[in-house]
Structures are given as C-alpha cells and as structure tokens.
C-alpha cells in the first residue's frame, strides 16, 4: 500500500499536485461532502475511506506467487508456496473488490467525486485491473495445469484476459482524460504514481505472453489474437512510459530526492521497462518457441520464419529495457541508502511500492536467464525474489500493527467532518 493523504486533504502544498479549484462551489457542496458523524462505526470507516491503493497488496502477492512458480531453481514445496501466495492474492482481491464496490454503491456521487478530485487516488485506480491480471496468471499457471483443471480453465483464462484488455485500456483513457480535464498539474509536482497506467497496459502484455506460453493446450486460434493485442499493449506501455520518464527525471533533477516517507515510490519507475522487457520475451517465445505463428501461418507476419526473427528482436529489446529498468532500480536503492546513512529511513506504507515494480524487473531477468542460458541472470533473479519476500513480510508486520492501532484501513475519526469544522478544504 502506498501512503496517501486523506481524501480531500492537502496539508503540504509543496508535496502535492495542484489543480484549479473554485472555493465558492466547494462551500456550496460542503454539506453533501462532509455530512456524517465525526466518530464513525468501524464498518462505515472501512467502506467510506477504502482506496484503490489496497489492491497493491494483491499485486504484490500475485507477483511473488508467479515468480516462485517460474523460479529457475526449484525445490520440493516451492510450487506449494507459489499456490499459497496466489491464493492470498485471490482472497484479498475478492475482499477488496467487494469493499471498493460497496464504497461506490453506498456513497455514489460523493465517492466518484473524491476519486477524480484526488490526483493520487486517480493514478492508483488502474491497480484494480492490474490486480485482476495477476489472477489471470494464477488461472493460467496453476489452475489450468491442475489435475482437476484442464482446457476449460484455459478458456476461462482467455476470457479473463480479454476482459482485462478492455478494462486496462479503458482505465488508461479514463485516468489521463480526467487528469487533463480536471487538474492542472505543475511539472515540479508531477506525482510518480502517474506512471501506473503505463505499467497497467505493459502488465496486460506480459500476462498475455504468460497465457500464450503456459496455458494448458492453448490453440493458435486462441493464442495468436492475444499475442497481437499484447504487442499493441506493450507498445503503449513502452512509449507512454518513456514520455513520462522525461518529466519524472526532470522532477528529480529540479527538486532532488522525494521526502523520506515517499522515497520508496521511486521503485515504481522500474515498472514500465521491467514489465515491457518481460512481455516482449514472453511474446517472442509464444510466437516462435511455442510455435503459435507457425501453426497459424497467415500473411507475412504470422509465419514460422517471421516468428524466429521476432523472438530475436524481442530478446534484444528486452536487454535494452532491462538495462534502463536496472538504472531506475539503482536510483531507488541509492535514495534509500542515503536515507539510511542520514538516519531518515523509517517504515512507511509507501514501502509497498517496492515489490511489484521490482518484481517486473525480476521477471525480465528470470526470462533472460532462460533465453540466454545465463547463470548470472538466474542468480540475480533468486536474490531479487528473496529480497521481495523479505520486504513483503516487513510490510505485512508494520501494516497489521498500524491497523491494530487504528492508524490504517479502519480510522474511525472522519477527516472530512474534522476538516469542515476547521475551515475550507484544500484540494489535492
């Protein structure tokens, strides 16, 4: 989970994106926005304040489960651990989705307005669809290959993937359309989270590659359309990511490292390149190694000869993107190390931003280890997986502690009422 200010709160104008706001309109709607008791029931607090940032837990569990399933060095019980991680992903996703849907069903227009008015919430909205895509990987890798699974679950995974395709591109357009329409973000304040929609479409491509490579007895008729659509998605992820990198690097050069609680968000910048590198390798392998283009055999592109060239090209591009992703990972590690040396390194919920983006780069090195038969990439992959698991348990321990203290997830004091009593709200 990434730490965010309460919805509608913006105490630090220097750290938050700015937008044009008409306070007269806010005063007229104050009763509708802030109506309710100051101290709420636990259920009301849970549903009213529920945010898409909680879906990052599903993403993290799903990424770790997928990596454990495909790890180059397997041992007895590792697949069981992978299944446990993916089951945690499924359970959390169902619970969080129910809460998020209730959030909109109960609070309707108010909930929607809070979402689109808050830049950080809006940028995190695609996490819902990204978490869903980790379940597509779960069905593909585990369920379709189970003794009770089979080809029927390959069809289920295919349907889920196409739903995710419409969902992820729809959210990409929704997020940026609202940012353009409703917010005037000064470039020094461009939030790192703005790159998440690019990660979303790149994840769609990677999961499409997983489906085409590993689904049980997947036919070329099912696999090839997924491969083609995934290539379009990875193109969107790569180029949109590169465009946003320009602004975000400028922000780092102009303002320096983020504040200590937000330093871990730098790991998000690994995502577009890491996920695109993994997606390209999977799609190249699906087209050539798994023979889908050769079996499909139509036109000049969907042929066995074209597939061989495509796989080589995809591996080459993946190496380039892995290099850039490693640079961003290096920046993030240096920033964390500087905080440690200055004794400014303390745990914050933003540490949840470490796992999924770094996991995308880990997937890329895992696949490079297989494609290049490289012991170096395989060892690097194992080191990264161990690191991600440790961070996951650290995050879980601190998160549960803060929930128990009433500082996260269920905060019974309604900041909206407190803010209304204190004065005009500030926009974020």
From TrEMBL:
<comment type="similarity">
    <text>Belongs to the tellurite-resistance/dicarboxylate transporter (TDT) family.</text>
</comment>
<feature type="transmembrane region" description="Helical">
    <location>
        <begin position="80"/>
        <end position="107"/>
    </location>
</feature>
<feature type="transmembrane region" description="Helical">
    <location>
        <begin position="119"/>
        <end position="141"/>
    </location>
</feature>
<feature type="transmembrane region" description="Helical">
    <location>
        <begin position="316"/>
        <end position="338"/>
    </location>
</feature>
<feature type="transmembrane region" description="Helical">
    <location>
        <begin position="350"/>
        <end position="369"/>
    </location>
</feature>
<dbReference type="InterPro" id="IPR051629">
    <property type="entry name" value="Sulfite_efflux_TDT"/>
</dbReference>
<dbReference type="Pfam" id="PF03595">
    <property type="entry name" value="SLAC1"/>
</dbReference>
<keyword id="KW-0812">Transmembrane</keyword>
<feature type="transmembrane region" description="Helical">
    <location>
        <begin position="262"/>
        <end position="283"/>
    </location>
</feature>
<keyword id="KW-0472">Membrane</keyword>
<feature type="transmembrane region" description="Helical">
    <location>
        <begin position="223"/>
        <end position="250"/>
    </location>
</feature>
<keyword id="KW-0813">Transport</keyword>
<feature type="transmembrane region" description="Helical">
    <location>
        <begin position="375"/>
        <end position="401"/>
    </location>
</feature>
<keyword id="KW-1003">Cell membrane</keyword>
<feature type="transmembrane region" description="Helical">
    <location>
        <begin position="188"/>
        <end position="211"/>
    </location>
</feature>
<keyword id="KW-1133">Transmembrane helix</keyword>
<protein>
    <recommendedName>
        <fullName>Sulfite efflux pump SSU1</fullName>
    </recommendedName>
</protein>
<feature type="transmembrane region" description="Helical">
    <location>
        <begin position="153"/>
        <end position="176"/>
    </location>
</feature>
<dbReference type="GO" id="GO:0000319">
    <property type="term" value="F:sulfite transmembrane transporter activity"/>
</dbReference>
<feature type="region of interest" description="Disordered">
    <location>
        <begin position="1"/>
        <end position="22"/>
    </location>
</feature>
<dbReference type="InterPro" id="IPR038665">
    <property type="entry name" value="Voltage-dep_anion_channel_sf"/>
</dbReference>
<dbReference type="GO" id="GO:0005886">
    <property type="term" value="C:plasma membrane"/>
</dbReference>
<feature type="transmembrane region" description="Helical">
    <location>
        <begin position="50"/>
        <end position="68"/>
    </location>
</feature>
<dbReference type="InterPro" id="IPR004695">
    <property type="entry name" value="SLAC1/Mae1/Ssu1/TehA"/>
</dbReference>
